From TrEMBL:
Species of provenance: Pseudonocardia bannensis
Domain of life of the native organism: Bacteria
Descriptive protein name: Cation-transporting P-type ATPase B
Subcellular location(s) per record: Cell membrane
Protein family per UniProt: Belongs to the cation transport ATPase (P-type) (TC 3.A.3) family. Type IB subfamily.
Length: 311
């Protein structure tokens, strides 16, 4: 039978904006000593904005945005949404894409086909032009043997120094532009980190984003470089959680994305942002309904109180 105090705890959780899968979840919450926070969409709003387009020499910025927008249409990633929104606002309807492929935590690819609408009876009219487009983090391009020209290296470095994310657009095997995106830190994230520490917990930041962007966010919420793990591929997020557990830590993980699902399931306690993807919510023990990190603090305090009551 389920102890009454745990049932009460579950009900109280709902009032606090925390959905708890089962009363037994609160039990494991009590022993947590480390709280791993995903960056994008968890500490930050995930509502990314396109801040700039840096074309390589001889490349038309709008063409880079158009092709990137077309391919990102197939992705639900916050970065993809920002690029599609900016491309649509500036250029209207985007072309269709064939052979779409998603590289989780890395980027997207696809073939964009245009039919030339030239003067009637001109030889070009009706010609079909197809571009194989690849959009994503610099590591994805490197994997495909695509190097950045010096001007794009500079654009990338500048963006990352500013704590932003640089996304590279390439087509037909050549890097053509860097898109700069960023989002805002959620207003309560810094306070949540401070209060997790007050509870004696160690907050950490885990992200697939670049080291510089991660440190910029860490500095603003009070998580230092020693507690930041950046440039992590989705499959490696699980390995990080496993490593922390094998070091004897009891780990809570808070995340929102498809890329976080496996790590959320592997952690001693998985907490999903209610604003996140269904996959993340299904993989988790708790859902923070309002997408507010302060609810993590509430959930852990609630579990401790509830278990004190039954002991
Ligand atoms: P986080 O761990 O911070 O939530 P993700 O694992 O979702 O970040 O993504 C890691 C990185 O992979 C992003 O910062 C971005 O560089 C790249 N990326 C992921 N998905 C896409 C996409 N659809 N388009 C472009 N870049 C992407
Ligand atoms: Mg995320």
């Amino acid at each position: 039978a389920t102890p009454t105090a745990l049932i009460v705890g579950t009900g109280r959780g709902a009032q606090l904006g925390v959905l708890i899968k089962g009363p037994e979840v609160l039990e494991s919450t009590r022993r947590i000593d480390t709280v791993v926070l995903d960056k994008t969409g968890t500490v930050t709003t995930g509502a990314m904005e396109l801040l700039g387009v840096h074309p390589a020499d001889g490349v038309d910025a709008d063409e880079a945005l158009r092709l990137a927008g077309a391919v990102e249409h197939g992705s639900e990633h916050p970065i993809a949404r920002a690029i599609v929104a900016a491309a649509t606002a500036k250029l209207g309807e985007l072309p269709g894409v064939a052979e779409f492929g998603n590289h989780a935590g890395l980027g997207v690819q696809g073939v964009v086909t245009d039919v030339v609408d030239g003067p009637e009876n001109s030889p070009q009219n009706g010609t079909v032009i197809a571009h194989a487009v690849l959009v994503g983090r610099p590591a994805l391009l490197a994997e495909h043997g695509i190097e950045l020209p010096p001007s794009l290296v500079t654009a990338r470095e500048q963006a990352e120094r500013d704590g932003r994310t640089a996304i590279v657009v390439s087509w037909d095997g050549v890097a053509r532009a860097v898109l700069v995106v960023a989002d805002a830190i959620r207003p309560t994230s810094a306070e949540a980190v401070r209060r997790l520490r007050e509870l004696g917990l160690t907050p950490m930041l885990l992200t697939g984003d670049n080291q510089a962007a991660a440190r910029a966010v860490g500095a603003r919420i009070g998580i230092g470089p020693d507690a930041i793990i950046a440039d992590v591929l989705p499959e490696d997020k699980v390995a990080v959680v496993q490593r922390l557990r094998s070091e004897g830590r009891v780990v809570a993980m808070v995340g929102d994305g498809v890329n976080d699902a496996a790590a959320l399931a592997t952690a001693d306690l998985g907490l999903a942002m209610g604003t996140g993807t269904d996959v993340a919510i299904e993989a988790s023990d708790l859902t923070l309904v309002r997408g507010d990190l302060l609810a993590t603090v509430d959930a852990i305090r609630l579990a401790r109180r509830t278990l004190t009551t039954i002991r």
